C-alpha cells in the first residue's frame, strides 16, 4: 500500500470545482432574474460538459468512462459488500460513484439542451426558441426548471456520500483538491498530458464563446 497515490489529473479536478461554481452561479442568477448572466454561465456549463465527455474518452485512466462505468452485476455486488466490508478507498470512482457521474452528466446535458429552447415569458429566450412551437417551448421550459431541482437532489446525494466516506476515514474531498489519495493499492495509471486538455478546452471555448456566449455578453453593455 502506498502512503500517497496520484489518482486524479488536474483537468478532472478543474472540471469538478468549475461545475460546483457554475451550478451555484446558475442557481443564483435564475433566482435573482439575472438572465443574461444566467445564459452566459449556462453556455459555459455546456462547454464544460462537452469537455468532460471528450475527456472521458481521451483523458487520464481514472477520468475515462471505461474505468468507472461497470455493469449492473458489479455495481450490485459492490453495494452489497458495503454491509460487510464497509467503505473502501478506490483509485478513482467506485462502481456506485461511477453511476452517479453518468447520471449527473446526463442531467446536465438535459439542462443545457432544454435551456436552448426555454423562455421566461418576459425578456429571455433560448437561441433555438424560435425553431419550435410554443407548446414545445413551454414543455422544454418546464423540464428545464424541474430538471434543475433533480440536479440539486443529485448534489445533495453526492455531498451525503462524501460525508459518509469522510466519517468512515476515506478522504474523498481532499483528493479532489490534491489529486492524491492515501490507503489504496498503487496502480499503473496513465495520465494524459495537460496540453491535450488545454487544446480541447481552447477549441470548445472558442466555438462556444463565438456562437453563444459573445452574442449575449455583447448585448449586456
Please give a quick description of this structure.
With 221 residues, the chain is mainly α. Helix content is 69%, strand content 2%. The longest helix has 34 residues, at 134-167.
Query: How much of the sequence is in beta strands?
Result: under 5%
Order of helices and strands: EHHHHHHHEH
Structural class: mainly alpha
Helix fraction, binned, reads 55-70%
Overall mean pLDDT score?
91
Cα radius of gyration in angstroms: 19 Å
Shape: globular
From the N-terminal CA to the C-terminal CA, the straight-line distance is: 57 Å
Count of strand segments: 2
> What multimeric state do the chains show?
single chain
Sequence stretches where pLDDT stays below 50 over 5 or more residues: none
- Total of helices: 8
How are the strands of the largest sheet arranged? 1-2
Largest sheet: 2 strands, antiparallel
Protein name: Cytochrome b/b6 domain-containing protein
Transmembrane segments: 12-28, 40-58, 96-118, 150-173, 194-217
Pfam families: Ni_hydr_CYTB
Domain Cytochrome b561 bacterial/Ni-hydrogenase: 7-179
Amino acid at each position: 500500500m502506498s502512503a500517497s497515490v496520484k489518482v486524479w489529473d488536474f483537468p478532472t479536478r478543474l472540471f469538478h470545482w468549475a461545475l460546483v461554481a457554475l451550478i451555484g452561479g446558475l442557481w443564483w442568477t435564475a433566482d435573482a432574474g439575472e438572465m443574461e448572466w444566467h445564459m452566459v454561465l449556462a453556455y459555459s456549463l455546456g462547454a464544460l460538459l462537452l469537455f468532460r465527455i471528450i475527456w472521458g474518452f481521451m483523458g487520464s485512466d481514472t477520468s475515462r468512462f471505461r474505468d468507472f462505468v461497470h455493469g449492473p452485476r458489479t455495481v450490485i455486488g459492490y453495494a452489497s459488500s458495503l454491509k460487510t466490508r464497509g467503505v473502501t478507498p478506490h483509485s478513482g470512482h467506485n462502481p456506485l460513484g461511477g453511476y452517479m457521474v453518468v447520471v449527473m452528466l446526463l442531467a446536465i446535458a438535459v439542462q443545457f439542451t432544454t435551456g436552448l429552447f426555454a423562455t421566461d415569458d418576459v425578456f429571455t429566450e433560448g437561441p433555438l426558441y424560435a425553431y419550435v412551437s410554443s407548446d414545445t417551448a413551454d414543455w422544454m421550459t418546464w423540464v428545464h426548471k424541474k430538471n434543475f431541482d433533480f440536479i440539486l437532489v443529485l448534489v445533495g446525494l453526492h455531498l451525503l456520500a462524501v460525508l459518509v466516506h469522510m466519517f468512515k476515514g476515506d478522504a474523498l474531498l481532499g483528493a479532489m483538491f490534491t489529486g492524491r489519495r492515501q490507503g489504496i493499492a498503487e496502480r499503473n495509471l496513465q495520465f494524459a498530458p495537460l496540453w491535450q486538455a488545454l487544446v480541447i478546452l481552447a477549441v470548445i471555448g472558442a466555438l462556444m464563446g463565438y456562437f453563444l456566449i459573445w452574442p449575449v455578453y455583447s448585448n449586456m453593455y
